[in-house]
Amino acid sequence: MSLIDHIHRCQSADMSKFLPWRIGDGRAGWVRRDVAERLAGYPTVFSVGADDVRLKPHLATYDHRSAAVGDVTRDLYEAGLFTGWRGEWFPVLQHFGEAPLLRLERSAVPVFGVHGYGVHMNGFVRDGGRIKLWVGKRAANRPIEPGKLDHLVAGGISLGLGVRECLVKECEEEASIPKSLAQAARPVGALRYRMEHQGWLRNDTLFVYDLEMPADFVPRNADGEIESFELMELDAVRGILARGQDFKFNVALVVIDFLIRHGHIAPDESDYSDLALGLWRD
Amino acid sequence: MSLIDHIHRCQSADMSKFLPWRIGDGRAGWVRRDVAERLAGYPTVFSVGADDVRLKPHLATYDHRSAAVGDVTRDLYEAGLFTGWRGEWFPVLQHFGEAPLLRLERSAVPVFGVHGYGVHMNGFVRDGGRIKLWVGKRAANRPIEPGKLDHLVAGGISLGLGVRECLVKECEEEASIPKSLAQAARPVGALRYRMEHQGWLRNDTLFVYDLEMPADFVPRNADGEIESFELMELDAVRGILARGQDFKFNVALVVIDFLIRHGHIAPDESDYSDLALGLWRD
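^ Those are the sequences you sent over. The predicted structure of the assembly is below.
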């Protein structure tokens, strides 16, 4: 498996399968055509046309929209359309940083193809001139990608959390990194992908951070989401990426970005500009 | 002027003004419609249709293609279609790293909308926790963007040069950076833009490097292309970007990427993901 295959895997969504979900003049998400037919069964909430699904304009406030879509979401979940209810709110945003249009149960975010936002942090250690990367192994009971390799810290940004606030919280929960150390994490960019995963649309932007860790810090998972951590040489990380899909799909992207930014992949290698440019395709 | 405006400025090409220039099954560049009409006057070299311009298939080798297109290029230059003949060869590439289809006079690269490749190096100095960036001022006699602010080192990759080889050469010529120091430059990514500039199509990929410089190193220009250098605080650099177009158009992009990668722009700022993602749009 070549590095570029990881990027193609995450840029694979066939958007012809989805109809835009509009609220007013803006787009709130993307809905699979068969799901649109289900939504037509809730005519007080959605109007479903040939080209799009629209939220009824009488649902004009955050509270009204959240309540009406929330009822439909619960109904579809109980009817078995999707699984893995999280009991956690995500915002539905037109543009990041603006007030949310409504709130949505986290597990329904890919069902409505809503643009999700997450933080991913590369925790690394310098050993002389060399860099080693902390890699976690996801617990076997995770709803998404159990047992796959993960970052030291990563998570979705739920309703009401700022980006750095989310990062500091995840640092504590996922790796027992104290706030004083987490605050030193440096934002280094963002990346974006739209992929079909388990039949749904993952439509995500990840905010990426690097944190140089003290050599003697040993991460310890506090929320049961990560089974173990290992400090890996970058050559070993690259070897795993070349071998197959051991890394969680989106973690592979962030790791490739890390390898590029830290000069571990060089411009004279084949696919370099496709790798460097492909990570940010919209 | 907002930071995002610099990106929009470089992603501004209206491609409906251009016809693809094809060689065999591949695309060698993009030609303005009025230039396509001029090329129709060379029927042994080009066939010009409603949808594209094709190189005649009998021009089947690198040498034949280079000679035939070279004659046309010289003719168009002497007829006054474009100015600034450089006497320097650039490769016409289907994919970076592959054998070139032909070679082309550098000043004709935007005339044929050929994909150009360059290196841009951020030379920076650490001062405690702060970073300062070396900024050059382009000489008043440069054919492109005279007097604008520039990187410590930047240049187009001419025929036969590898990326790092080009960087080391430019380090010596533009800033008198010895090879031993230049070798420490770290590749950190690539960015891409297509813009109309002086009526032509700049269709470029830049390979970006960072080089941490010793605090006592003073750059000295050796080829007359840079008038002076200044070591600037990142806040000052950002202030100049906010003020207007003092930086050369593509240098602004690379500097914004530098500010993002070094955490000087944070995800909670408006436009962050548009900035971070827009730099790599194809």
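The first strand of chain A starts at residue 18 and ends at 23. Chain A touches chain B through 31 residues (CB under 8 Å).

Shout if you want it in another format.
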